Amino acid sequence: MNPDFERYYQRIRAQQKRESFVWSLILVLLYIGAGKLSEFNLHTLWTSFPHFFDYLSETLPVLHWRLLFANGHTEGSLAYWGYRLPIQLPLIWETLNLALAATLLSVAVSVVLGFLAANNTQSPPGIRFTLRALLAFLRTMPELAWAVMFVMAFGIGVIPGFLALALHTVGCLTKLFYEAIESASERPVRGLAACGASVFQRMRFGLWPQVKPIVLSYSFMRLEINFRQSTILGLVGAGGIGQELMTNIKLDRYDQVSLTMLLIIVVVSILDALSGRLRRQVVEGGK
Questions:
Q1: Residues 92 and 160 both lie in one domain
Q2: How open is the CA angle 226-230-234, to the nearest 5 degrees?
Q3: pLDDT tens track for 147-174
Q4: 151 plus 263 within the same structural domain
Q5: Do 36 and 90 sit in the same domain of this protein?
Q6: C-alpha–C-alpha distance, residues 214 and 279, integer Å
Q7: Is 108 left (phi over 0), alpha (psi -120 to 50) or beta?
Q8: Core vs surface per residue 45-81: b (16+ CB within 10 A) or e
Q9: Would 59 be classed as within a structural domain?
């Protein structure tokens, strides 16, 4: 090996090691400083963590194998554990409808706003700047904060949850969509422009076919996220199964807490599997 190259290689390697050490030290110091400012304590976390499992064990139902399939009046049976299923199942359905409605409306609005906010769609600069500032504000406010404000304005129910999910979803999806539009190839657009196509035709036939699989993929992913978020929003009175979960926690109905959580986990798992399969079929079919 060339001696000059060997010396150069060793010098670069030594420089990389020094830089890695310095940056690692900076990150450790920042981590320690952030922990001090936020009063984060590993010892407290370690000693308190077992209490989580204590609470979790309290939520487990008391089931007896011999009485497992007895009627709902027999303590220790599945029917006794699930006596609130007639209330919880409609709430699960309400939560799913809430997430679906908010996602569908948000996707439709976000597609339009995405084309208006993109740099390569010939929209006026003032509109692009205003839209991006508004979208940044919508993304900055978490769904929970929106839900609290809307609950105070509209009262307890699904309307606050719907509005909170829709606003935050529009802010997030529009950013993803206009970035995808800006990353699309300009060749089809230039070809259509050379043929005398209008601006709308260039967007419709030049850009939309390229970004359609991405839009569908992000939309399915957002549906999964919105279902989880709608469960959390119910904790502040925004409707759905989350409200039932909070009620059970407040009333110390520990067995019903576990049943509600089990329903949420099952529905989320099914939704993830179905949306993942649909996303793959649509995206691969779109390609």
A1: yes
A2: 170
A3: 888 888 888 888 888 999 999 999 999 9
A4: yes
A5: no
A6: 10
A7: alpha
A8: eeeeeeeeeeeeeebebeeeeeeeeeeeeeeebeebb
A9: no
Do both 28 and 97 map to the same domain? no
110: CB partners within 8 A, 6+ apart: 169, 170, 173, 174, 177
164 vs 133: CA distance, rounded Å: 18
Helix, coil or strand: residue 267: helix
Task: With respect to residue 12, please indicate whether it lies within any of the assigned structural domains.
Answer: yes
pLDDT tens-digit map of 160-210: 889 999 999 999 999 999 999 998 888 888 888 888 888 888 888 888 888
The number of distinct structural domains making up the chain is 2
Same domain, 30 and 108: no
What letter represents residue 257's amino acid?
V
Q: Which amino acid is at 271?
A: L
Burial 210-221 (b: 16+ CB within 10 A, else e): bbbbbbbbbbbb
- Residue 116 covered by a domain: yes
Residue 197 is part of a domain; what is its CATH number?
1.10.3720.10
Residues 104 and 17 in one domain: no
Quote the pLDDT of residue 116: 92
In a domain, residue 70? The reply is: no
169 by Cβ neighbours in 10 Å (0-12 / 13-18 / 19+) ranks as: buried
pLDDT digit string, tens, across residues 106-147: 999 999 999 999 988 888 889 999 999 999 999 888 888 888
C-alpha neighbours within 13 Å on the C-beta side of residue 26: 6
**The pLDDT value given to residue 285:** 60
Q: Cβ neighbours of residue 191 under 8 Å, at least 6 residues apart?
A: 206
For residues 173 and 222, is the Cβ–Cβ distance under 8 A? yes
Strands (E), 145-224: none
Residues 19, 130 within the same domain: no
Same-domain status, 23 and 138: no
30: containing domain:
3-40
